From TrEMBL:
One of its GO terms (biological process) is cell wall organization. Residues 1-32 form the signal peptide. It comes from Companilactobacillus heilongjiangensis. Keywords: Cell wall biogenesis/degradation, Hydrolase, Signal. This is N-acetylmuramoyl-L-alanine amidase. Gene3D superfamilies: SH3 Domains, Zn-dependent exopeptidases. GO terms for cellular component: outer membrane-bounded periplasmic space. Pfam families: Amidase_3, SH3_3.
């Protein structure tokens, strides 16, 4: 009987030990994966800072899991393999629940706590942390805790860290400093300098494209500026670009998955555009083609914005300003040509205004469009409003002659529309390499 009791007790102790080990193992795995997100795009650039102007430090692939450490300007700071720390664009990551707010904050208990490169007291020392300092806990495994230290990952003894209920999201700020902005340059004609940061504010003066003001401060989406004559007022951020910053004024996407692209379906609303012999209108075709291109581009991870998504009237100024407002990486206006006499014209043409700003985009797109069944007329410089007054790289593509029966046969087919969408996507892939 005594042997039976002893055997029973030993078994219970063994089960308890195994259970504790299992719980310990589970908790470590949980800490490692609780804040994990999954890459959705084929490849995503990892940058050294939260923005496209920062240098690439590598790439992650579709399906890779990343741990979020911080958030700033719609970018996630993430932990990579090899304990590297970098930043990825949040819109390229499948993340509906996880944020930096789920990272726990710890308090250092011991004076001059040593931070090691690895979970090993024999590894290189990264530095020390003062007692009572708060740190973001990234990962824990038994005797060691990984923390965010000086923009990288470091390890400290777990016994030196006191856990708290506070989360890192509550102490992070996503505000960016404007201390480095020196000038703002007007990109839209008849830009208004107003007395207040409001579209209804009294107009101080009107500025031409290219006019520069000294930057004073920022108020929401408005810049407070000063002119050379001493007058002070506010201009809307979406009608100017900034200069003198440490980061690039315009986007610097080097991968289509990071890019913001504006697709502009020409005409709309009361403006029906050209009419075919079949009594169909250009405005309907441009919208259908824009939606097809948007669908194809979004498969690459790109952010795509349409200037209109229905049969809406949009001024040329509104279309160009949208590109400036969201700092698009590329603007593509879609149209269909028409000749004075039916069946007198044919072909696809890609127009640009400023060769330095728009030429490469025009060439890369046109090189792909050459394979379409409608003949290609090449690229050409043309002073078109949505290109002339667009601060971002921009082109206007005439995708064939709507009043040519030969061209119309293709324009009205789903096969041609799908081919155009594919060619535009491939052209942009080439442009962003």
């Amino acid at each position: 009987m005594k042997k039976t009791i002893k055997f029973f007790i030993k078994n219970r102790i063994l089960v308890a030990i195994l259970l504790l080990l299992a719980l310990s193992s589970w908790s470590t795995v949980a800490l490692a994966s609780a804040n994990a997100v999954v890459v959705q795009s084929d490849s995503v650039n990892v940058r050294v800072g939260p923005g496209l102007s920062y240098a690439n430090m590598g790439q992650v692939k579709k399906g890779d899991k990343l741990a979020i450490l911080d958030e700033k300007n719609k970018w996630y700071q993430v932990r990579l393999s090899g304990d590297k720390i970098g930043w990825v664009a949040s819109w390229l990551i499948d993340n509906t629940e996880v944020s930096s707010a789920t990272n726990k904050v710890g308090i250092v208990k011991v004076p001059n706590t040593t931070v090691f490169k690895s979970a090993d007291a024999g590894s290189n020392v990264l530095g020390t942390i003062e007692q009572s300092q708060k740190v973001t806990i990234m990962y824990q495994e038994q005797d060691w805790t990984q923390i965010l230290y000086g923009g990288t990952a470091g390890w400290v003894k777990s016994s030196f860290i006191q856990g708290t209920q506070e989360t890192s999201g509550s102490t992070n700020s996503s505000n960016t400093s404007d201390n480095d902005i020196k000038k703002v340059t007007v990109t839209q004609p008849n830009t208004k300098l107003r007395i207040d940061p409001d579209q209804n504010g009294r107009v101080v003066k009107t500025a031409k494209v290219g006019k520069q003001f000294d930057f004073l401060s920022k108020d929401g989406k408005w810049y407070k500026v000063r002119d050379a004559d001493g007058s002070v007022g506010y201009v809307a951020s979406w009608v100017v670009t900034i200069s003198g910053t440490k980061s690039a004024v315009k986007s610097a996407a080097t991968n289509i998955s990071e890019a913001t692209i504006v697709i502009d379906p020409g005409h709309g609303g009361d403006d029906s555009g050209a009419e075919s012999k079949k009594s169909t209108y250009e405005k309907n075709f441009t919208l259908a083609y824009a939606k097809a291109i948007k669908s194809d581009l979004e498969k690459t991870g790109a952010r795509v914005v349409l200037t209109r998504s229905g049969d809406d009237s949009k001024s040329l100024g509104e279309r160009a300003r949208l590109s400036s407002k969201i700092q698009a990486d590329a603007f593509i206006s879609l149209h269909f040509d028409s000749s004075a006499q039916a069946n007198a014209g044919s072909g696809v043409t890609t127009y640009y205004y400023n060769k330095g700003k728009d030429g490469t985009l025009a060439n890369d797109l046109n090189s792909q469009l050459k394979g379409l069944p409608i003949g290609n007329r090449g690229t050409a410089q043309k002073d078109l409003y949505v290109l002339h007054y667009n601060s971002q790289p921009s082109v206007l593509i005439e995708l064939g002659y709507i009043n040519s029966m030969t061209d119309y046969k293709h324009i009205n087919s789903s096969t041609y529309k799908e081919a155009v969408a594919k060619d535009v996507t491939n052209g942009l892939k080439e442009y962003f390499k």
